Fold:
Amino acid sequence: MRKLLVALLVLAAGFSASLEGTISPGSITVYKGNSTNFTVSITNTGTETVDVKLAITGDITWILPFNNILRLSPGQRGSRTIGFSSSARSGSYLYTVSARIDGKSLWDGNVLINVKGPAEEEPPATPEKESTFIISSDPETPPASTILLGVRASKDLLPATVEISLLSEDGPVYQTSGTLDAEEKNFKIEIPPGQEAGNYTIRAYVVGKNIANTTVVRVIRVENVEVNEEVQKRLLGKKVVLTAQNKGNVPAQKVVEKHISAFERPIIDASPAPEIERDGTSYILRWSVAVAPGETKTIATYTVDYIPYSIIGVLLAIAIVLIIQKPEPIEVRKDVKYVEGKDGRTHIRVELSVVNSSDGPLEDVVVREIVPSIASVSKARIIKAKARKTERGVELIWELGKMMPGEERLFGYEMALKFGIIGKLELAKPEVSWKE
Structure:
């Protein structure tokens, strides 16, 4: 019995009712004697099927009967079209529509209906007639936008100063003021960038007249992260600064990738350090960054040098020791990795890097590598080689053709020994030839 009670309490705690809604249109103008209607749409953003009751406050004399119950499953959207009677007198009618679950209002919105007609058909004004001050706005808006607050006031309030506030549960978000010098006037309200999604109250107060009114606007969810790149050129390369700006109103996790040619030889200076992936003749730099609404964050700073620092150092050292000595125009690097196979045999992965470190192009560049007879070539990487049997083993030949100054070629192969070994196998250095 105790376990069942605990399970029921867990289920009850996990239930969370949540609704979102819109009213369209939010403001209607109709001539006397004509009927009109507006549509209320409600979306169940919770986790359980619910019965939603629509309730209307205002002068409901002119609201036509409608089915005010919506049964909505999670994620489902339902709508009701609500009619307004053609018998209504001239004037402005402000209605608030609430969506309720078990008597609790989880969403509400406003609709303003203006009924126009000839002045002589209206009942004569009396000294006891109350001042009219009605406001309305669009029901929804994104962050970083401008909405218009429509104000309709009776003549006895003119002229006056109107103070307008956009309010959240925590207090004012935006405030402005303006002069009310006509019976109908629009005022601009700025929705700040990154403003959190949800319902906000717009309050308009007529200074010195002791009269105010409110309406509700919903700021919708927007996901919008922009990545900007600032490039600063240098003598032998460039410096790149990457920034991410969240122009939406929800936290975002952005994965940023930069593809850099291996010829540029990037030197990375970033915090946090990126993931680096080698893809043929290029590097892929990858960062993951979290950006809060309205935040601009530096992702990384990295530099790219077009001439390798190692070659500059070698050239300077040779110039000091022997100015007349000329360095080899081709630089070859060899990286060897040993892997034990499932069959007990030793597999060797060989990666070769060939760089034209001269000042001019080189023609007919050819690289030769000897695979010893105790091994067999099992796989080629990036560039396929020609194979020729010799007394020392299998000779692999890569014909690279023309190479420009600073150009680098990457390739390799994998060999499998006929048995497992302890230690490392002594491999011959690759041979390279070219024409200047």
Notes: The longest helix spans residues 2-14. The first strand starts at residue 19 and ends at 24.
